[in-house]
Amino acid sequence: MTTTSPVEKAGGATAQYVDKRIGSNKFLSRNLGKVFPDHWSFMLGEIALYSFIVVLLTGVFLTLWFKPSMVEVVYDGSYVPLQGIKMSEAYASALDISFDVRGGMLLRQMHHWAALIFVAAMAVHMFRVFFTGAFRKPREFNWLIGVGLTTLGLLAGFSGYSLPDDLLSGTGLQIARGIMQAAPIVGTWAAFLLFGGEFPGTDFISRLYSVHILLIPGLILGLVTAHLMLVWTQKHTQFPGPGRTNDNVVGYPLLPVYMAKAGGFFFIVFGIIALVGGLVTINPIWIFGPFTPDQVSAGSQPDWYIGFLDGALRMMPNWESSFWGITISWNIIIPAMILPGLMFTALGLYPFLESWLTGDKREHNLLDRPRNAPVRTGIGVMAITFYALLWVGGANDIIATAFDLSINSIIWFLRVSIFILPPIAFVVTKRICLGLQRRDRDKLLHGYESGRVLRLPHGEFIEVHQPLSAKDLAVITAKTDVAPLPAPEKADADGVRNKHYRIGTLRHRLSTAFFGDNVARPTDAEIEAGQHHAEHDAALEAPLHEYEDADQISPGRGGALHHPGMAETNAEQMDERSQH
Amino acid sequence: MKFLAARRRSPLVASALLIGALATVGGGYAVIAAVQPAQAAITVGSETQVEAGRQLYLEGCSSCHGLEAQGTQSGPTLIGVGAAAVDFQVSSGRMPLAAPGAQAPAVAATYNEEQVAALAAYIGSLAPGPAIPTAEQYDYANADAAIGGELFRINCSQCHQAAGQGGALTQGKYAPNLMAAEPREIYMAMLTGPQSMPVFSDAQLDTESKQHIIKYVMTLQESSNPGGLSLGRLGPVTEGVFLVTAVFAALIAAAVWIGIKSR
Predict the structure, then answer these.
(1) Domains delineated in chain A
(2) Confidence band (pLDDT; 50, 70, 90) for A382?
(3) How far is CA A434 from CA A66, A482, A516, B65, in A?
(4) Using CA atoms, how far apart are residues B130 and B109, in angstroms rounded to an integer?
(5) Which of A84, A222, A312, B48 is in the most buried spot, having the most CB atoms within 10 Å?
(6) Chain B residues closer than 8 Å to A409 by CB
(7) Which residues of chain A are within 8 Å of residue B237 when distances are taken between CB atoms?
(8) Nearest residue of A to residue B154, measured between CA atoms
(9) Domains in chain B, ordered, with CATH?
């Protein structure tokens, strides 16, 4: 017989009440028990989601006080060094939020930090998805949604950075407008259309405001929903391990485990953002002062996620050409339009490209270990290196003053290394991956090196190899060998020309480059023999375990075993003997 | 008197009077014009001080700036730079130059106050130039930080950065950090335009404007950071570094911690 507590009764009644009206029980019983695999790196996307929630919450607070208006006012708030200065209402209200609204500074700083964390968490999440091959079939669309979210994250951030109308945000807008104007033929028209006339004009802040608080967050919310629904229906990928296959999900149910974990993690992320927002200054607009087009500050930089674009602009040589009275500013078009266009296109297309060149059309629910796809991992590290160099370029003046370097030397270093370092990073990463693969193979064939050297009775020294644990064995043997696509025949047996010969040869070459260097996984028989051998090794060591189990090794007996109750010293021993 | 009275109607009188008048005006002007710069130089120091400065100059400066301060290939002429320029460069340790480089760094001063004054007096005596400002000139007690802020953003922040943290110029040159600069130093820098800095003469920024700017720099130096830890007031770069190091270390540590809990 079961007893029901009043709480359970009340809960049941409520659930009944709701279920009768919206039919929620069926949905909940089907979904609350859903199993998710567990790994810390699966929580990186959660950081992005939670920081986005913080951005929304703090953003709503800010809209209550922020005035997106370019009307000129005279500041009379409590920040003394700006009192009496003429400025836009937008900047004045941003100052008021910082100094005169209770809790305003904290929430403004939390909003900005959370926005930076949001974009950074998306990037780190993307690294995880990329390096583990989680974007492979059937998850290519979700990868595309992710790329879309990242792009929107950049736009959301930049539009917010530009809103307070301080000197830094105005400088950023001026550069954005300059980039827009560099577009051949349409550039000037587009810039005038968007800004409603000459820069800075009076319309732009209010236009940007609706983009920042309505359009972009709405799109992000929609895409986040689609992103999560796809994770839900496609189920989460998992790392290889004991009992984990391509067709199951090993983990914990949503209720109660993940509800508690995710809920707890939300509050940790929220807490860290609140802590940083309360303790660390971000975007001190009061120091930058109000924007006017005739002023600029040294060390004007965009927020980190736009830094790569700024760096590309700073690194680009000053190339321009002129045709029929139209100036083509290659110095802007290449770094600020073509480059980001190529970067994001490559990012979006990568899953399709990889599946095309590898001919891999299988479903993948089991993640790759990065070492098992050396070319992909190499490409990823190459891209990160490229991005990081652009990033350094964006901070070149700060680096120059901080490390007593010449800004010109930094730029020339970057102009050269942007072409040299990424390929080096690719080769080094690939070699490291292949080395790790060989090590895995070695572990399978000989067990792992215990680090203990044993001298055998006949004088030989060996290092004891131990058999792998079930977990290690499962993780390493999950690697599957994929043969590169075969080289196509020029003509079939009947002499009919192969129409796809050229493209087939290209795919053959690319897939050979992708898989060709992989270290072959040993056969099951070899693995078993290897593990058996390791067991044998370990067995040789068995007598030594007596030493380990012994109480201590007696110093007086040349290292003889000592068990509790035995004599400690020679004197004691003599004593013992004389008693017998 | 008879002599004059008898000849006052002579036809030569008009010419003589004209020549006399011209000579008086012209000569008087020449004397005044010659005296004025001399006054500016003389206010700098006495004869003995100038002589002492000349000795110091010949020992420590002439190898680059020339025996007559006329300048050589390794140093510019100092004729007309004024006593203020000497005071700024020497008392901040920028001169004498410790080693050739993109720019003279401010290091510990080689000369003491008395020697600096002597050097300044000597260079000041060579030709007119900006004199060392009086304490009154750089007294910013009645200046307005808000006006100073605006002037600072128009004239200074493109090199010295909005918060006065300094910034990079081309070929290893730089605009120094102003967070330890003293009012007198700032005033003299504006007056003389050392190194890559332009001169802000009284025609561009009058004494009052300079005082406003000094007030604003002092405000920046003294102000606390209402937002918390300042990260060097360098803007998005240090914020980004803090983000990817400290903040992400904390977030990922939390994720790993929660991940470990399940094992």
Answers:
(1) 1-31 (no CATH), 39-307 (1.20.810.10)
(2) very high
(3) 55, 15, 11, 64
(4) 21
(5) A312
(6) 172
(7) 299, 301, 307, 394-395, 398
(8) A295
(9) 47-126 (1.10.760.10), 145-222 (1.10.760.10)
